[in-house]
Design brief:
By secondary structure, this protein is α/β, with parallel strands linked by helices. It contains 17 helices and 29 strands. The structure holds adenosine-5'-diphosphate.
Length: 585
């Protein structure tokens, strides 16, 4: 057996680049990309990618060089997902919501050789480049060479905005349509570089391999049961884990990419109605946007729209409301380091018989491993024992398999920390239910430990979401003189609601064990979020640190502040905990 030949006929490195080559042959005349009235076919998208790859080579872009891009979901960014790796290089799609300093940090850290900038982002890009130059002058990064900057102008109505001499379409024009791309010798070669959004630590550069990207793509089109001829709406940024691999996945299915520059309710409803969208991905935050849309923005769904959601816990009541609107939701869980979704809440037919509330609760669980992952478990980090499948015992979610990143760019220490005893540690705390489905309870850094009791902020938030006046809620730990820490809830009310803290607390007392009841409810206009829509709990924690709780027993049951709160084992009305809001950060 061992003597049988392994040759180019029977062993070809796995890469998503094969998807577009295949699409150009099989789906040549099918629409590949729609954007603002412009349409391309798969043969055109392939040809444009070949041309761009050739032009990149002519700028001396070689294997492992990083090509960065700052652009919304436009055709150019889609094409780059193929063209850049065809040239042997590594695509780095930068989060468009970052500020100039963060962009400069990424350009410096990745040593980007080329930097593509959409015309609308020229200002921020030029600020970032100035910072980069300043760094060079400081001598902080003497080895870094400034990237070649290329502007991507509007396809239909060119603005003439430039940052340097070059424009994207020039590269397409001068490229060679016959160029086949560099031979990929090793599927372990890097295909893309994505920086984490940094909700819990400094952003890190996560490197994906061609093999990992190929397998993850296959898993997700299979797990979501995405058929051929899907019409995929780009409501999820392509810069987020390469659009959870659907940049490559839509090519694999010969689907149509509907690109939109801005993700808002009007654009989403309009695209669904105009192009008969069948699939879209988004974080749960988009649900609120769709549900709270103004009547003139809403278009009634006339056929099924499948949504794959993840990135943050989707509260069960929101899932239910979205399904009532006609969206069919699949819930997935993942992280940048796992090439996007690693678990998917695979639906079981027998659940269709259950009441809708129960269905929504089952769907809010993060689910089971995607097909090409080798294994997933929830473990006690110290003993490395898997937790019992009782839906209660918490541990850290760990993953193994080819979807997991190669590692963090230029960060051996963090890479070694992430890989521990043969597993990738996610930093997320979860449980396993008796049916094998996993459920996230928190991020290890977000768990609130009150008097030795673990409080899951995710669980508390999902109860708060059920309150009819609450639009969004985030719970973090605040210092407590007796219990160490206690929950503090930040709440955004629905428009025109004037609910008071005492009402929210009364609702909490009715719906959760006493120890979980927040000791403070802060009403805010909006929650601080990352570019990918995740609540920045670190910021809220900083505010919560300034909220001082002092224990005070009053004889007449009156408190000097506006709070009257109780802890779990205190008989009601005996001891009052007075919360004094200190100056905010
Ligand atoms: P960052 O860690 O910087 O936020 P990511 O964008 O990779 O970067 O975020 C991944 C994290 O998002 C996960 O570790 C997890 O905490 C959270 N997450 C992702 N999907 C879900 C989900 N379906 N339910 C709950 N949390 C999720």
């Amino acid at each position: 057996m061992d003597k049988l030949p392994k040759c180019t006929a029977n062993y070809v490195p796995l890469t998503p680049l094969t998807f577009i080559k295949r699409a150009s042959k099989i789906y040549a005349n099918r629409t590949s990309v729609i954007y603002d009235g412009v349409r391309f076919s798969w043969s055109q998208t392939y040809e444009r990618s070949c041309r761009l790859a050739y032009s990149l080579r002519s700028f001396n872009v070689v294997r492992n060089d990083v090509v960065s891009v700052l652009a919304p979901n436009i055709p150019a960014l889609y094409e780059m997902h193929f063209a850049v790796p065809m040239a042997g290089a590594v695509l780095n799609a930068i989060n468009t919501r970052l500020d100039a300093k963060n962009i400069a940090t990424i350009l410096r850290h990745s040593e980007a050789k080329v930097f593509f900038v959409d015309y609308e982002y020229v200002h921020i890009a030029s600020d970032a480049l100035s910072l980069l130059v300043a760094g060079l002058e400081d001598g902080s990064s003497p080895q870094h060479v400034m990237p070649l900057v290329i502007v991507i102008d509007d396809l239909k109505r060119p603005t003439g905005v430039r940052l340097g001499k070059l424009e994207y379409e020039q590269l397409i024009h001068h490229g060679n349509p016959q160029y086949l791309g560099e031979d990929l010798e090793d599927e372990w070669d890097a295909i893309s570089l994505n920086y984490t959004s940094g909700t819990t630590s400094e952003p890190k550069g996560v490197v994906y391999s061609h093999r990992g990207a190929f397998l993850s793509t296959m898993s997700l089109i299979q797990g979501w049961e995405m058929g051929t001829e899907a019409v995929y709406l780009w409501s999820l940024p392509m810069f987020h884990c390469n659009g959870w691999t659907f940049t490559w996945g839509v090519a694999a299915r010969g689907g149509t990419n509907v690109c939109i520059r801005n993700t808002n309710a009007e654009q989403i409803y309009k695209s669904i109605s105009n192009h008969k969208v069948t699939h879209m991905c988004c974080a749960p935050i988009i649900f609120n946007m769709l549900l709270e849309a103004k009547p003139h923005e809403i278009r009634k769904l006339t056929s099924k729209v499948n949504i794959l959601t993840g990135g943050a816990p989707p509260p069960a009541p929101l899932l239910k409301k979205m399904e009532e609107l006609g969206f069919h939701i699949t819930h997935a869980y993942g992280l940048t380091e796992a090439t996007g979704p690693a678990l998917i809440c695979e639906w079981r037919t027998k659940w269709n018989e259950l009441p809708t509330d129960h269905q929504a609760r089952l769907k809010a669980r993060q689910g089971v491993s995607i097909l090409t992952l080798a294994d997933v478990d929830v473990k006690d980090k110290k003993t490395m024992e898997g937790v019992p499948h009782d839906g209660k015992t918490m541990g850290e979610i760990v993953l193994r398999g080819s979807s997991i990143m190669k590692g963090y760019l230029k960060d051996e220490k963090e890479t070694a920390k992430a890989f521990h005893k043969g597993w990738f540690f996610t930093g997320d705390v979860g449980v396993i239910h008796p049916d094998g489905y996993m459920e996230i309870k928190d991020r290890s850094k977000d768990v609130i430990i009150s008097g030795g009791e673990n409080i899951s902020s995710v669980e508390l938030e999902s109860i708060l979401f059920n309150h009819r006046d609450i639009l969004e809620a985030a719970v973090v730990a605040m210092p407590h003189p007796r219990w160490g820490e206690s929950p503090c809830a930040f709440v955004v009310l629905k428009d025109t609601r004037d609910t008071r803290e005492t009402e929210i607390l009364a609702y909490c007392k009715k719906n959760m064990p006493k120890f979980m009841v927040p000791k403070k409810v802060e009403f805010v206009k909006e929650l601080p979020k990352t570019g990918t829509g995740k609540v920045q709990k670190a910021k809220l924690r900083k505010i919560a640190q300034t909220l001082q709780i002092s224990l005070k027993t009053t004889s007449d049951n009156k408190v000097s502040d506006n709070q009257t709160l109780y802890h779990q084992d205190e008989p009601e009305n005996q001891e009052k905990v007075v919360v004094v809001a200190m100056s905010r950060l």
